[in-house]
Amino acid sequence: MKRAIATIAITILFSTLVGAQTHYAQEFLHKQPPRVPDYMVFAGDTVRFDRNDYYERMDRELISFTYMHTNTTLMLKKSDRYFSQIVPILKREGIPEDLKYLMAIESNLDPKALSSAGAAGLWQFTKATAQTYGLEVTAEVDERYSIEKETLAACKYLKTAYEKYGDWMTVAASYNAGQAGISRRLSDQKQKTALELWLPEETARYMYRLLSVKMLFENPTLFGFYVDDSDKYPYIPPKETVTVTSTITSLVDFAISHGTTYRKLKEENLWLRDSKLTVKPGKSYKIIIP
């Protein structure tokens, strides 16, 4: 009798454990990637996926974003903080809001990002390109890390490219490969849009990554990601912004005199690349006080 009861108990326990394991697996099993839509509208332009090559390229990027767990989750959490600063500038400069997704492709919304090729900031400008578009890049000041100034520089680039191509997908391709390279390929291959070009793999994927990341931010649950608004990192406006017209010999002392710490000051002003700030005659800088 005791043996029978023990056998029944073990059977029940085993069934319970198996059931719990199955429930756990179902609960945490990542969803399948979203299906490729019939079409997408990006910055007012319609991209259709009714051709095998378009469909398969888009499918590849949807799969990629679905399983980039860490980067994707962090981007979703950071989105409110950076988009809330970027979008007003894009609108003011006449750039479609969808172009904000270039930042996600370029830097994963990491304002400290620095590539192996030396491209820096949210918009990933190289030193040469940054200086071409009016950004200061020195040992003490690197405006590629200034959210406002690098975004304004990006707007200049995007406007110039759109005037040349009249197509935002081609503009996006040029942001990755350079206008000279895209213009040469358009001419050599006798095409009007970068979507029809034979391109290096990175640039060929870039346009579809841009479309995929728009889908991701607009509907993350399709990709199996659940980030509540309460989980997103907020943008906290600065306590004040100080205009500096003379040299600061110690940013540590400057921070303390304004009721903050050197660490917080540097975090809010990533463009300050040294512990001092030399201000030349007639020059001024705006420093955020957190």
Radius of gyration: 25 Å
Q: What is the count of DSSP helices, taking H or I runs of 4+ residues?
A: 11
- CATH uppermost class of the largest domain: Mainly Alpha
End-to-end span in angstroms? 74 Å
> How is the main sheet built?
2 strands, antiparallel
Strand content: 5-15%
CATH topology of the largest domain: Lysozyme
- Domains (count): 3
Averaging pLDDT over every residue, what do you get? 91
- Poorly predicted segments: 12-28
Shape: globular
Structural category:
mainly alpha
Helix content: 40-55%
The topology string of helices and strands comes to HEEHHHHHHHHEHHE
Q: In the CATH hierarchy, what is the architecture of the largest domain at level 2?
A: Orthogonal Bundle
The side-by-side strand order for the widest beta sheet comes to 1-2
Describe the SSE topology.
Elements lengths: L1 H27 L10 E4 L2 E4 L3 H15 L2 H24 L8 H7 L19 H6 L14 H19 L2 H10 L1 H11 L11 H18 L21 E5 L6 H7 L4 H7 L16 E5 L1
Antiparallel strand pairs: 1-2, 3-4
Helix pairs in contact: 2-9, 3-6, 4-9, 6-7, 7-8, 7-9
Written overview of the protein:
- About 6% of the residues have low confidence.
- The chain is globular.
- The chain starts with a helix and ends with a strand.
- By secondary structure, the protein is mainly alpha-helical.
- Strand 1 and strand 2 form a beta hairpin.
- The chain folds into 3 domains: 30 residues; 193 residues, Lysozyme (Orthogonal Bundle), CATH 1.10.530.10; 50 residues.
- The protein has 11 helices and 4 strands.
- The strands form 2 sheets. Strands 1-2 form a two-stranded antiparallel ribbon. It has a two-stranded antiparallel ribbon with strand order 3-4.
